[in-house]
Amino acid sequence: MFVEWVIFSNESRDVLIKAVKLTKKYDDFVAVDGIDFEIYSGECVGFLGPNGAGKTTTVRMMYCFLPPTSGDLIIAGLSVHDRCREIKQVVGVAPQEDNLDLDFSVVKNLVVYARYFDISKEEALKRANEQLDFFQLQEKRDMPIEALSTGMKRRLIFARALLHKPKVLLLDEPTTGLDPQARHLVWDAVRQLKKLHVTIILTTHYMDEAEILCDRIIIVDHGKIIEDGPPKELIKKHIGENVLELDYDSTLLPMLKQTFSDARIEVIGERMQVFTSKPYSVFDGFLHEHKIQNVTLRKANLEDVFLKLTGRALRTND
Which of 174, 191, 277, 295 has the largest count of CB atoms under 10 Å? Predict the structure, then answer.
């Protein structure tokens, strides 16, 4: 699939994407509030945040779908204010929305899209077939778009984003609606592209996906960047190593606080969580003494970080 891809592995870790006081407003609503960030060549960076946090708006400004209200955004040395045509030549986009052409078959969607990048018809068909093979859509190649399932459409949108072999790939919720098998197929594609040092920007609500695939995480809330760093470092900084989960018990709570005085303890609905940097064995004596049922002992993860920093309340705006 990627055999003839232009490999950028010999490039230094130059800043490929740079935002300076990047702002997007809709009347009085500030969707992105003067953020600064840098993304290096070859990085896979996850933009995470609740609905309405500003992450999707930021990504849409990266591929010139939305113009910034103020500030600047530089992609491969090109400003989104006046170089959008050139930016689109080096950026591949798999957007959240289904924007496939219903008038075309599966394969024609790919071939026609490739022609926008001055790829010859013969080469476009070759690349289209490679993508259809990899994303296991070859048997659907002549079907109309309306005949595809939601998951198949997501895979086709991803395939389309790769046709012109972009230097930067923007993936906005790429695995939404996919079954586990298709989701892992997308993960495999991302891993292959990372080996080729393609710069990848990923938005997702799946924290395990971000933790597995991303070199660095940028967490956005209320239009501002509230944290930035590698997943493992963020987990260690905000959560620790291990988490004990057990059913809420008002008699146990004081004992937990006394026994694990340096741990962070949260009561969440009908469950209690104990966060600690100490190893699993620190819980052994307590669990043995109290014979607690329905206990989970697990490693801390990125979802713990996300919920701590952005809260557990539902967000209804997108």
Answer: 174
Which residues make up the CATH 3.40.50.300 domain(s) of the chain?
15-102+163-235
Fold of the CATH domain 241-300: Alpha-Beta Plaits (3.30.70)
Q: Taking residues 283-289, what's their average pLDDT?
A: 86
* Residues in CB range of 242: below 8 A, 6 or more apart: 275, 276, 277, 278, 279, 280, 282, 283, 297, 298, 299, 300
pLDDT tens track for 159-199: 999 999 999 999 999 998 889 998 998 999 999 999 988 99
> Where in the sequence of the chain do the CATH 3.30.70 domains occur?
241-300
Count of CA atoms in the C-beta half-sphere (13 A) of 161: 30
What are 40's two structure tokens?
């290096």
**pLDDT category of residue 25 using cuts at 50, 70 and 90:** very high
Residue whose pair of structure tokens reads 């697990």 in the numeric block: 298
CATH 3.40.50.300 assigned to domain 15-102+163-235? The reply is: yes
Q: Is the dihedral of CA 186, 228, 302, 316 positive or negative?
A: negative
In the predicted model, what is the mean pLDDT of residues 110-131? 95
Q: What pLDDT digit, counting tens, does each position of 137-158 carry?
A: 999 999 999 999 998 999 999 9
Which residues face 268 on adjacent strands? 271
Q: Which amino acid would we find at residue 135?
A: F
Looking at residue 20, its amino acid is V
Query: CA-CA distance, 39 to 129, in Å (whole number)?
Result: 32
61-102 pLDDT, tens digit per residue, is 999 999 999 999 999 999 999 999 999 999 999 998 899 999
In this structure, are residues 195 and 188 in contact, taking their beta carbons and an 8 Å threshold? no
